[in-house]
Amino acid sequence: MRIICYCMLVFGVLFLVIHSESSASAKTLDAGYASTSWLGSGEVHDLGDAGQVINAIVKGVMVVRHSQGAENRIVHTAQLECPIRVTLDKKDTQRTYLGLCTIFAHEGKDIGYAEWRCSGDARECEGQFTFTGGAGGFNGVSGTIPFFSRIIFEKLEGSNARAVGYAYWPNLSVTLP
């Protein structure tokens, strides 16, 4: 009976040590202020008095400005590609955005995935940007941060549209395992 209790104690201690090391190894990286300009294209579908649905793909370059002390300002860039869906309620001119982004950094060696949701009027939307995973240096990336964006759609021929705008993350931070 003592041997069984001893083995259970050893396995319990090992479990706690391994679990605490994996928890302790997760780190939050505070990158600072990030922004992008969007360009894209899509389709506008009129729903009569109910509003519009816009399906588009917007692309941009995320510029992250962060500092490591007062003298050392560091700027990193990453490419973004985000399929988005926008719904417009014509009655109250409110827009709801849903975007799924792929982020390519370090010449495509590090890839991150994120989802964003925001709502607002035609000028700007405010919402949440959630990192959902990745590969390379972004493997296991997570975190949810505030997100602001504006995308203007210019209707072209038929249902085609051009998209231009911007987005910014005032306090870009991620958690890596």
Protein topology:
Elements: H1 2-25, E1 27-46, E2 52-67, E3 73-89, E4 94-105, E5 110-120, E6 125-135, E7 143-155, E8 160-176
Characterization of this structure:
- This protein has 177 residues and is mainly β.
- It has one domain (27-176): AOC barrel-like (Beta Barrel).
- Helix content is 14%, strand content 66%.
- It is built from 1 helix and 8 strands.
- Strands 1-2-3-4-5-6-7-8 form an 8-stranded antiparallel β-barrel.
- Strand 7 (143-155) and strand 8 (160-176) form a beta hairpin.
In short:
The protein has one helix at residues 2-25, and strands at residues 27-46, 52-67, 73-89, 94-105, 110-120, 125-135, 143-155, 160-176. It is mostly beta strands and 177 residues long.
Shape: elongated
Poorly predicted residue ranges: 1-23
Major sheet: 8 strands, antiparallel, barrel
Mean pLDDT: 83
Task: Write the CATH fold name.
Answer: AOC barrel-like
- Total helical segments: 1
CATH class: Mainly Beta
Number of strand elements: 8
Oligomer: single chain
Largest beta sheet: strand ordering: 1-2-3-4-5-6-7-8
Computed over alpha carbons, the radius of gyration is 22 Å
Keywords, please?
177 residues, mainly beta
